[in-house]
Amino acid sequence: SILRELGILLTAIIVAGRTASAFTAAIGSMKMREEIDAMRTLGIDPGHALIVPRVLALVLMLPILGLIANVAGIFGGALMSWIELGISPAMFATRLAEGTDVDHVIVGLVKAPVFAVLIGVIGCRAGLRVGNTAESLGRMTSSSVVAAIFAVIVADALFSVFFQQIGM
Fold it and tell me: CA 126, 65, 154 angle in degrees (round to 5)?
């Protein structure tokens, strides 16, 4: 469950809360100070200059963070099995190798770029929708976090149905 679902889902939810708000606040602040209008005046496309680099960075980093979460989850499971259940680390490793397939890791990692695009686009889009007031910035920052977390959960559910249908 760590490799297929929990590792990447919990990582994506945490990243959605942190990153969607940061993207919205940064781009929204630029919009409030009319920096985005200045970019357009200079002939710079705000989408290419502001959105694409953020989304690409997230697409690159979320799978890495997901792998770190998987390792931490397995290590935590091994530690708790040893302390609470008396299962030796060697036995845990043996059972893990017997009961785990590479497909589980692939299923988890396939989700990461999709989650990253959802989080990045929702956060940046909310930043571009900020009005000229600080109240608008706060409202859009909060709504981007909620929307990004909701989108990640819905996408995870759709992935689960899809992988069930194809037998993975």
Answer: 50
CA dihedral 33, 56, 104, 162 (to 10 degrees): 80
User: What token pair was written down for 52?
Assistant: 């694409």
Q: For 133, which DSSP code?
A: S
Q: Determine the average pLDDT of the residues in 6-11.
A: 91
pLDDT in tens, 13-66: 999 999 999 999 999 988 888 888 888 888 888 888 889 999 999 999 999 999
**Other C-beta atoms within 10 Å of 12: how many?**
29
Q: Residue 121: what pLDDT?
A: 94
Q: What Cα–Cα distance (Å) separates residue 159 from each residue in 29, 30, 72, 108, 154?
A: 35, 35, 23, 10, 9
Maximum separation of any 2 CA atoms in the chain, in Å: 67
